[in-house]
Amino acid sequence: MEDKWQNEYDFAVQVARAAGAVIRKAGEEEIKVQTKSCAVDLVTKTDERVEKIIIGSLKEHFGDEHCFIGEESVSSGQPCILTDKPTWIIDPVDGTTNFVHGFPFVAVSIAFAVNKELEFGVVYSCLEDKMYKARKGKGAFCDDEQIQVSDVKDIHKSIIISEHGVDRSVDRVTKIFSTMQKILCIPVHGLRGSGTAATNMCLVASGATEAFFEIGIHCWDIAAGVVIVREAGGLVLDVDGGPFDLMSQRMMSANNITIAQRIIKEIEIFPVPRDDAPAPKKK
Ligand code: IPD
Ligand code: CA
């Protein structure tokens, strides 16, 4: 069954490109901003609209057999459970804060999993107009050119990406900045962050940076990037060095194990809920 998911893959690329065009157009108009979990967790009508467009086109094309995990659907109460069924994992606008501010990195992220295994991932960095994509066992590409992780093994010659998410409790921010301080003082060449996890992973995959990690990251932000990093020759682990778990909100991606383990030594881990944790019962 060599080409089993080829149709789905090709269609995902098409849908991501169309979604990106909608985002670019919306960015030229006035953006009305709302908040979700807290004052810095932003959402716009475009996030909701683009998710509806993506899921609508996928349903129209592939029928109701497939399952969907989309950031905005989960926000509005849909379950975030990965089963063995073919499942699309979607972030319609990754980098909503960037989108609102005109900071030029915004991505559409679409992944596809079967039997809980990620089969392919598509990340369209729509303001740069770069289409990253990868299919399990078939390599990773940016605009049809094959990409590869960097071959740097010396941590002192690395650039590392981390982000801080939207939880600004002093405890959490202190841990994040303590980790960043320790990494900077290794020293590494630099610390970066594009404001979109999906794009960060593509930067690891294309060799622009050696690693990206985050605690508190959601499955829709990283699912497509996971396939792209792996297919570019990199690896994805838990932040403690154990096996990666898509629903755990913990992710370390790197060009190689030497870099990953050196960074992992410095990470101060803090507790986060799982994406698939049952919603708290309403009183
Ligand atoms: C966010 C971005 C950001 C990461 C956050 C995510 P969103 O996604 O990927 O880089 O640090 O944890 O929530 O909200 O823009 O889709
Ligand atoms: Ca989003």
Report how far apart the termini are.
Answer: 49 Å
User: In CATH terms, what is the architecture of the largest domain?
Assistant: 2-Layer Sandwich
User: In total, how many beta strands?
Assistant: 14
Q: Kindly provide the radius of gyration, computed on alpha-carbon positions and rounded to a whole number of angstroms.
A: 18 Å
Q: Please, what is the average pLDDT? A: 96
Under CATH, the homologous superfamily of the largest domain reads Fructose-1,6-Bisphosphatase, subunit A, domain 1
Largest sheet, spatial ordering of strands: 3-4-5-6-7-8-9
Total number of distinct structural domains? 2
CATH topology of the largest domain: Fructose-1,6-Bisphosphatase, Chain A, domain 1
Bound molecules: D-MYO-inositol-1-phosphate, calcium ion
H/I helix tally: 8
Sheet bearing the most strands, described? 7 strands, mixed
Architecture overview:
The protein has helices at residues 6-27, 45-62, 71-75, 96-101, 170-184, 197-205, 219-231, 257-264; strands spanning 33-35, 42-44, 67-70, 87-94, 107-114, 117-125, 130-135, 140-142, 145-147, 159-162, 190-192, 211-215, 235-237, 250-254. The chain is α+β, with helices and mostly antiparallel strands and 283 residues long. The protein has two domains: 6-147, 2-Layer Sandwich (Fructose-1,6-Bisphosphatase, Chain A, domain 1); 155-264, D-Maltodextrin-Binding Protein, domain 2 (3-Layer(aba) Sandwich), CATH 3.40.190. The strands form three sheets. Strands 3-4-5-6-7-8-9 form a seven-stranded mixed β-sheet, sandwiched between helices. A five-stranded mixed β-sheet has the order 11-10-12-14-13, sandwiched between helices. It has a two-stranded antiparallel sheet with strand order 1-2. Helix 1 (6-27) packs antiparallel against helix 2 (45-62) and helix 6 (197-205) packs parallel to helix 7 (219-231). The structure holds D-MYO-inositol-1-phosphate and calcium ion (CA).
